[in-house]
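Feature request, filed as a ticket because there's no other form

It would be nice if the structure record came with a short human-readable summary line next to the tokens. Right now we just get the raw output. Example of a typical job, pasted below so the devs can see what we mean:
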Amino acid sequence: MTELETTPTKTWKDQAACKGKTDLFFVSRGETHKMQLAKAICATCPVIDPCREYVIYHAERFVVWAGMSEKDRRQYRIEQGIKLSPAQHGTIRRKEAGCRCLECHTARRP
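Raw output as currently delivered:
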């Protein structure tokens, strides 16, 4: 494993193999080839460990992170006993999770 260069202006995300190719990592249902390509890029990434650490505790949806689909991450959390804290009402995260309360229905991205 190579030593990561991190400074206040350079983070692990700046060293990711997917940098500049993020459109490949937004995979829709049935896009098996695209999913395999994204996972193959992740497999060569020098920062897969910090990426996995980040995404396991953040509810990223519809995207491959650290070589894991949303379904893979959900299964990993179950196996590891990791629970995400529920999102607050009135947030995009809660709205995307399907909450139909007025606060969530009117939530907007910043």
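Something like this underneath would help us a lot:
The chain has a mean pLDDT of 84.
Residues 13-84 form one domain.
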